[in-house]
């Protein structure tokens, strides 16, 4: 299955890089063809969501409290093609007190654009990301 791993991680953070690598490897171990897209640094013009059968969105939660959908996510979902009826998942790296709220807000945003989510989780640590990656796709 062609899978897009759309992430909103800090690429300079070693923990985030390790988690991203584990998510990708876990999804590939299930036979998925995974494309990793850095929402902050890659060009949106080259992204066509209609090409993918499954879209996994990975984000970080705020350091302390509060939960907001990344503005870039709304821009990507609005301009990169239709996601209506596409399967997907939402995962959030745990940090602060609002990780569960962040995954809920992320799911609500994805479902408002017509995505059908079959999985969501809060990633506790690097080791947990291996198990989470195997559930993507």
Number of strands: 5
Helices, by number, come to: 4
CATH class: Alpha Beta
Mean pLDDT score: 91
Number of domains: 1
CATH topology: Rossmann fold
Spatially, the strands of the biggest sheet line up as 2-1-3-4-5
CATH architecture annotation name: 3-Layer(aba) Sandwich
Helix content: 25-40%
Largest sheet: 5 strands, parallel
Q: Tell me the series of helices and strands, N- to C-terminal.
A: EHEEHEHEH
User: Distance between the terminal alpha carbons, to the nearest Å?
Assistant: 7 Å
Please provide a written account of the structure:
The structure is a single chain. By secondary structure, this protein is α/β, with parallel strands linked by helices. The chain has a single domain, classed as Flavodoxin domain (Rossmann fold). The chain is 34% helix and 25% strand. It has four helices and five strands; from the N terminus they run βαββαβαβα. It has a five-stranded parallel sheet with strand order 2-1-3-4-5, with helices on both faces. Helix 1 packs parallel to helix 4. The longest helix has 15 residues. The N and C termini lie close together (7 Å).
What topology emerges from the helices and strands here?
Layout (H helix, E strand, L loop, with lengths): L1 E6 L6 H15 L4 E6 L15 E7 L10 H9 L7 E7 L5 H14 L3 E8 L2 H9 L3
Parallel strand pairs: 1-2, 1-3, 3-4, 4-5
Summarize this entry quickly.
This protein is α/β, with parallel strands linked by helices and 137 residues long. The protein has helices at 14-28, 71-79, 99-112, 126-134; strands at residues 2-7, 33-38, 54-60, 87-93, 116-123.
């Amino acid at each position: 299955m062609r899978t897009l791993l759309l992430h909103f991680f800090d690429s300079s953070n070693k923990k985030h890089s390790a988690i991203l690598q584990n998510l990708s490897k876990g999804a590939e171990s299930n036979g998925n063809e995974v494309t990793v897209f850095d929402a902050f640094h890659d060009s949106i013009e080259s992204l066509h969501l209609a090409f993918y059968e499954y879209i996994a969105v990975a984000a970080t939660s705020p350091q302390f409290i509060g939960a907001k959908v990344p503005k870039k996510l709304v821009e990507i979902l609005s301009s990169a093609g239709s996601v209506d009826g596409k399967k997907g998942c939402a995962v959030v790296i745990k940090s602060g007190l609002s990780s569960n709220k962040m995954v809920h807000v992320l799911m609500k945003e994805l479902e408002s654009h017509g995505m059908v989510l079959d999985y969501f989780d809060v990633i506790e640590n690097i080791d947990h990301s291996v198990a989470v990656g195997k559930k993507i796709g």
